[in-house]
Amino acid sequence: MTLTTYDLAAEAGAILSRLGVPAAIWKEGTLAVRSPVTGEALGSAQEVGPAEATKAIDAAHKAFLEWRLVPAPKRGELIRLLGEELRAAKSELGRLVSIEAGKITSEGLGEVQEMIDICDFAVGLSRQLYGLTIATERADHRMMETWHPLGVVGIISAFNFPVAVWSWNAALALVAGNSIVWKPSEKTPLTAIASHAIFEKALKRYVEAGYTAPDGLSTLLIGGAAVGEALVDHPKVPLVSATGSTRMGRAVGPKLAGRFARAILELGGNNAAIVTPSANLDLTLRGVAFAAMGTAGQRCTSLRRLFVHESVYDTLVPRLKKAYGSVPVGNPLEAGTLVGPLIDEAAFNGMQKALEEAKAAGGSVSGGERLLANEAANAFYVRPAIVEMPEQVGPVVEETFAPILYVIKYSNFDDALELNNAVPQGLSSSIFTNDVREAEAFTSARGSDCGIANVNIGPSGAEIGGAFGGEKETGGGRESGSDAWKAYMRRATNTINYGSSLPLAQGVKFDV
Ligand code: NAD
């Protein structure tokens, strides 16, 4: 089927209607929504302004005051039901992700699977929000930590993981006893509306089962940066988890710091992989191809820089170029497609600009040209580009959110490590090697400086069980698994005297 034969507006509308979303919400608003698959309009979502956002945050604060009193395992029951509703809606929501964000089918479904997985994780967590008991120097005393809910958690998300990022934050924040307010990307409001409708189904079942949940527990605010700013500026939002570009983080971070609010910043990446002489090149080829071309290079963890040892360069790089020349680019809704469209024209222009700059810096470019423009003039498909660079300069040290892989030859392992770390971003990284010394060095204190450092898998993608996030300009935030839940709670240290004297710490005497 050609791109023009799809009626994606009708399909998106049918999905939203089956999820019980009134047409007015996505059809009669002011925010134009388009599909990157065909470039055509999908609908017009209803937006809120900053004043309405502020009112919604006030309501969310009231909800928090009640929700924090619900025992955590009972809060977990709501997330268990959300997981069930997501399982039931997986194919529909996954399809909508593909329609609105342009992901290939398996990645659209995979994104919803991540939502389900984090719900399962959070349900278990709801019985494990425990602190330590700590040895005290005083007789008849006990010292311990308790973890308490924080308040309203603001969630700002990017277009490229339009629903999973919300769920990573929402599932943890809610079991932790917070209320949540979500400002999704203005490029992907329909998937947000759908996710919220799914959440409301879970909430309805929760209440029908006899549990208590306050109004305003979870709010969706559709709008642009000004609505995000309302979240960032509101004094009753003690934590904002913001995912997006470093440019956005630079605006949001200092404002939150200015009012001593917490931030989880999940910002841009410029991820690298090192291919060493001992690497299994078949495995490397597949790992690199998926990490660099998957999601059309529009993952924060996409592989953008590849350092190849001189002894394997002439074997690996021609094979990679062949894969780049033949990878199926096209309609992400069709089986067999591996690379879908860029999100919009601005992304296409950004890619072309970076390729021009790379050429000016001595790079040799293969690919990068626009495809399928004759079928869909407003959709932006490209052949992924591979650029052999003489050194790490110019656009190589920046994040261009498009499928460009810069390849640089190296001869010394320590130089490759230095190149890996010599960019402002610090999200993800990997090494392909069968040499245990190189693998261990890469993951050691003198190795990769990123939040994610992998061995024999690419840098892109992550499992929800681990803490996710990166260093330097990536913002330093961690969310999802491990102990990331602690960021959504406040810790109190309690000392309890169960004796009848009052010994002071450090031997201090104060007898009155
Ligand atoms: P973006 O920065 O343009 O927008 C992200 C979100 O921030 C949107 O909801 C937007 O409305 C909001 N926003 C923008 N300016 C704001 C402001 N001043 N105050 C409050 N909110 C504001 O990003 P994008 O183009 O949607 O997404 C791509 C970027 O996101 C890439 O840089 C990518 O690396 C990054 N990203 C990072 C992660 C991660 O976990 N590190 C995950 C996904 C995407």
Describe the structure.
By secondary structure, this protein is α/β, with parallel strands linked by helices. Helices cover 39% and strands 19% of the residues. Helix 1 (8-18) packs antiparallel against helix 4 (72-101) and helix 10 (281-293) packs across helix 11 (310-326). It is globular and about 80 Å long. The termini are far apart. The structure holds nicotinamide-adenine-dinucleotide.
Per-chain topology:
Blueprint: H1 8-18, H2 23-27, E1 31-34, E2 41-45, H3 50-67, H4 72-101, H5 105-125, E3 133-134, E4 141-149, E5 152-156, H6 164-175, E6 179-183, H7 189-208, E7 218-220, H8 225-233, E8 239-243, H9 246-258, E9 262-266, E10 271-275, H10 281-293, E11 303-309, H11 310-326, H12 345-360, E12 364-366, E13 370-371, E14 381-382, E15 385-388, E16 404-410, H13 413-421, E17 425-426, E18 428-432, H14 436-443, E19 452-455, E20 467-468, E21 471-472, E22 479-480, E23 489-497
Parallel strand pairs: 5-6, 5-8, 6-7, 8-9, 10-11, 10-18, 11-16, 15-16, 18-19
Antiparallel strand pairs: 1-2, 3-4, 4-23, 12-15, 13-14, 17-21, 20-22
Helix pairs in contact: 1-4, 3-8, 4-5, 4-7, 5-6, 10-11
The structure holds nicotinamide-adenine-dinucleotide.
